Amino acid sequence: MATPYLIEVVASTVHSCVEAEQGGAGRIELCSALGAAGITPSSGLLEVVKRHIAIPVYVMIRPREGDFTYSKEEVEVMKREIDLLGASGADGFVFGALTSRGFIDTSLTSELVAHCGKIPVTFHRAVDCTPNLIEAVNQIASCGCERILTSGGKKSGPEGKETILAMHEAAHGKIRIMPGGGIKPETFAQIFDPQLTEYHLSGRVPKNSTMPSTLFEMDWFETSAAAIARVAYRP
Questions:
Q1: 15 or 35, which is more confident?
Q2: 30 pairs with which residues across the strands?
Q3: In angstroms, rounded to a whole number, what is the distance separating the alpha carbons of residues 30 and 82?
Q4: What's the CA gap between 228 and 7, in Å, rounded?
Q5: 3.30.2320.30, 3.90.1150.10, 3.40.50.2300, 3.20.20.380: which CATH number matches 6-229?
Q6: Which of 76, 89, 186, 223 is the most core-located residue (most Cβ within 10 A)?
Q7: Residue range 2-19: average pLDDT?
Q8: Beta strand 220-223 with 204-207: parallel, antiparallel or unpaired?
Q9: What is the reported pTM?
Q10: What 3 state SS string does the chain have?
Q11: How far apart are alpha carbons 88 and 113 in whole angstroms?
């Protein structure tokens, strides 16, 4: 694995972002509610994260959990969040929009990319819900996105590797293809390919609370620097 590559870590706390950078990550995808596949984080969280790390932070723009077909009001929220989070220091944005039939909503995606101005955009794993991922590559590229995060339409990146490589081939250098979804340090070798230069994972480990409770689940997960260091590129 001597070919240079970048690790992007999806994180929802300041501690996880700091651990990711210490472990060798080159970029953060910041979101809230990881258990719901991520929704838009607060501008306050972004501002504090930016004060504690130096690597770029891309921010999820997703107004709710569930599907990726958005109402007029939800689009209004997404644009407002882009404005607020852009002013708070976002280095990039992450979003995806589909039609009610599951195809790429190129009209809305282009509209949102334009609203981001010069701030780059990753189209997220909404792409994995589309019926033809190869066709989706050129559609998303035409909207102005700089990369696609995908598991190749499977539950995990390693399972979808064949399709991910086919998407990379179909991109012809117009847009980057970044594997993600279910990638762990112990499965990283299964997804790694010299043609792919970016990989997305969480590197999370359990954190056990010392606070007793019979009402709430008090344990949680945080990114581990040691986990990221196991997969980060070392020249």
A1: 15
A2: 11, 59
A3: 13
A4: 8
A5: 3.20.20.380
A6: 223
A7: 94
A8: antiparallel
A9: 0.95
A10: CCCCCEEEEEECCHHHHHHHHHHCCCEEEECECHHHCCECCCHHHHHHHHHHCCCCEEEECCCCCCCCCCCHHHHHHHHHHHHHHHHCCCCEEEECCECCCCCECHHHHHHHHHHCCCCCEEECHHHHHCCCHHHHHHHHHHCCCCEEEECCCCCCCCCCHHHHHHHHHHHCCCCEEEEECCCCHHHHHHHCCCCCCEEEECCEEEECCCCCCCCCCCCEEEECHHHHHCCCCCC
A11: 18
Worst-scoring range by mean pLDDT, 105-114, 191-200, 204-213?
Answer: 204-213
| Residue 93 φ then ψ, to 5° | -125, 155
Tokens of 157: 């990146």
Q: Which two tokens stand for residue 199?
A: 């990989």
Instruction: Give mean pLDDT, residues 204-208.
Output: 84
Q: Position 52: which residue type? A: H
pLDDT digits (tens, 9 = 90+) for 120-173: 999 999 999 999 999 999 999 999 999 999 999 999 999 999 999 999 999 999
Give the burial string for 171-205 (b: 16+ CB within 10 Å, else e): beeebbbbbbbbbbbebbeebbbeebbbbbbbbbe
Cα 8 to Cα 28: distance, rounded to the nearest angstrom: 5
What is the residue-averaged pLDDT of the chain? 95
